[in-house]
Amino acid sequence: MNSEIDFVARALYAAEEDAQVWEREPEIVREEFRSYARAALAMLDEHRGQEQPDTMTVAVPYAA
After folding, report:
1. In a domain, 39, yes or no
2. pTM score of the predicted model
């Protein structure tokens, strides 16, 4: 999970207009983006849990 958080954190950081090199940023800045990543992943999990299927399968008995 930590690698997933770091991956998302780096992506969010790279999207910043003034982004520098991730490895050169102070740990406090990297931890801030990890916090954003945790929140984003939590919201994604919540969203996925609320999804309803677009179609519903119904079994209809058929007698020939």
Report:
1. yes
2. 0.72
Number of domains within the chain: 1
Contact, 5 vs 41, CB < 8 A? yes
CB contact burial 6-32 (16+ within 10 A = b; e otherwise) = eebbbebbeeeeeeeeeeeeeeeebee
Cα 48–58–52 angle (5° rounding)?
15
Per the domain annotation, does 38 fall within a domain?
Answer: yes
Q: Residue 29 domain-assigned? A: yes
pLDDT in tens, 3-61: 999 999 999 999 998 899 999 999 999 999 999 999 999 999 888 887 666 666 666 66
- 64 within domain boundaries: no
